Amino acid sequence: MTVITMTREMGSRGSRVADEVCARLGLRHVERGLPRASPREIVELAAVGDVLIRGWGANYVLETIMHVIRVRVTAPMEARLQNVCMRMQSLDVERCRREIEASDRNHLAVIQQMCGVDTWQDPSHYHLVLDTSRDSIDACARRIIELAERPGFHPTTGSLRMLESCLAAPRRMLREAAASLGD
Q: Is 157 domain-assigned?
């Protein structure tokens, strides 16, 4: 029951890393981060398991679930520019830079608003930070797979209970609110 969350910078080739990991481990690749998915939807995906959730904030939503692997894929701006310009088939480097900078600002705004975190780039929020300018897609995928094979990232009774607790929390809060109103 492997669960991986992945956040990536625009132009870092994180999507390709995610595709490779999913192909090798037989995981579903779900692009569902905040705000497109609710925290509850992210927890539900994790509860089913065998999934790589690529999107903003999933690592924060699932940070208390000990078997969930939290990965960040990054690259220096120059590499990101090259990748984005190639993908956009554009020679306008400044246009590509504006796209990247807008994506980074939006990512930060969503994480600040929904998770109360000042920087999504802080490596302490992740088990693994990969720089695709230094390693190939294959090498990055292998490092994630090696982490997934470690016993510390296999579900335990405690981590599965924590997932169940996260799923029950909204229902429990509704029951408690109704009880306080005398319903």
A: yes
pTM of this structure: 0.86
For tokens 């009880």, name the residue: 179
Task: Give me the domain span that covers residue 130.
Answer: 3-75+122-166
- Give me the number of domains the chain comprises: 1
Indicate which CATH number applies to the domain containing 20: 3.40.50.300
Which of the 8 DSSP states describes residue 5? E
Handedness of CA 134, 90, 119, 150 (dihedral sign): negative
Please give the Cα distance from 154 to 109 (Å, whole number).
32
Which residues in the chain show pLDDT less than 50? 173-174, 177-178, 181, 183
- The answer to whether residue 95 sits within a structural domain is no
**Phi, psi (rounded to 5 degrees) for 81:** -60, -45
Determine contact, residues 29/18, Cβ cutoff 8 Å.
Answer: yes
Q: Do the domain assignments include residue 152?
A: yes
Q: Beta 128-131 vs 69-74: how paired, if at all?
A: parallel
Which backbone phi and psi does 124 adopt, to 5 degrees? -70, -10
Helix (H) or strand (E) run with residue 113 in it: helix 93-115
